[in-house]
Structure formats: structure tokens, C-alpha cells
Amino acid sequence: RRAAIAAGSAGMALGVLGLAAERVEARRASTGEFSSGGLGLSFAEFEARYGPGTAGQGAQIYAIGGETYAVLGTAGTDAVTSIYWTAKPQQSVEPDEALAKIAPFFPDDAKLREVYTTPAAGITPFATVHLYKSAGLAKALAGGPTVTSGNFLVAFQLVGGFDTTVTGVNAFVGAKP
After folding, report:
1. What percent of the chain has pLDDT over 90?
2. CA–CA gap between residue 68 and residue 163 (Å, rounded)
3. Beta-carbon neighbour count of residue 26 at 10 Å?
4. In terms of pLDDT, which residue wins out, 52 or 176?
5. 127-133/60-64 β-pairing
6. Contact indicator for 164, 95 with CB cutoff of 8 Å
């Protein structure tokens, strides 16, 4: 089931997230207390914090702190729902370093709930996944087209074989486990 969730969420994060020309502002917590480094923010809030991005293939590309990130939303809402970082070509990093690249974009109230690996056809898993929960993210996205329980996934793309280093990491809004 987790593999299906990860695959479905990854497809959602990478496939059907082209933003409609007319975005609908995601509802914010009525108290205005939602705080995040990126996930769940409106694109205007994201750009106010990090500067303008450039159009990429299906994502906005941002240069932040010397790194490059692909940022996506969900069709019909003006909220950042996926942030992807990749290592330089032909390089990989330790999982903790990849997590340090993506964690600043988490909602402030994010709590780690579970860590698991996705099945693969080879010897080792294709990805390691961290499942997080954020009550603030659930409120920020409430009423939009993305049904969320406040869960979001962080998928680490493993090099493979017996190499446990990471070539990329994606934080994205996921479904209820």
C-alpha cells in the first residue's frame, strides 16, 4: 500500500501538477498562524521569501542558497505542494545532507511519523521515504482541490545497488497513509 501511495503521490507531484492559468488561493488557517519554509505557502509568499523563479519543464525553478529547486503546485490552487532538489550531475550525497537541503521548506509544525523504503526490482529499494504530519499544512490546504490530512512525504532517490547515497530528494503533499 505504501508503494502505491508513494508512486501515486510521486506521479501527482511530477505528472499532473501543471498549474491552471487561473489559480484559486488556498484557504489559510483563520488565525493566520500557519508558518512554513515553503510547502503550503502561496506562490506569492514563496517568491516574496526566495525571489522570482524561472519557468522550467513543468515547474518553476528557483536558485536558493546556491542550490537549485524545482517547485510545483497543484492545479486549481495557489499553493506550493512539491519542492525537489537534485545533486549535481554524476554526484550523490549522504541522506542526512539531502534532508538538510529540503528540511528548511517544511511547515514549522512538521513531525516525523514514519520512515520506510519502497520496493524495487533490484537488490535494494528505489527510494527511502519519510512521512511527516503538519496540522498547519492541513488547515492551509483545506477547501482546495487537494484533499490533505496534513501529511507530506519526503522521498530520497537512492543511487542503488549497495550505494545508499542520494541523488535527489522531493518533499510533496501526500495522501493519508
Report:
1. 51
2. 24
3. 25
4. 52
5. unpaired
6. yes
- Mean pLDDT value across the chain: 78
d(CA 19, CA 171): 18
Task: For the chain, give the number of residues.
Answer: 177
Count of Cβ atoms closer than 10 Å to residue 61 Cβ: 14
Distance, CA of 120 to CA of 159 (rounded, Å): 12
Q: Are strands 80-86 and 163-173 parallel, antiparallel or unpaired?
A: antiparallel
Residue 8: is its pLDDT beyond 50? Answer: no
Contact between residue 17 and residue 58 where contact means Cβ atoms under 8 Å apart: yes
What is the C-alpha separation between 157 and 135, in angstroms, rounded? 27
- CA proximity to 176, closest of 110, 120, 113, 118: 113
pLDDT exceeds cutoff 80 at 170: yes
**82, 153 contact by CB (below 8 A):** no
Nearest to 79 by CA among 156, 145, 169: 145
Amino acid at 10: A
Nearest partner of 171 among 77, 1, 39, judged by Cα: 39
CA atoms of 70 and 85, how far apart (whole Å): 7
Residue 119: predicted pLDDT = 72
| Rounded CA separation 169/67 (Å) | 13
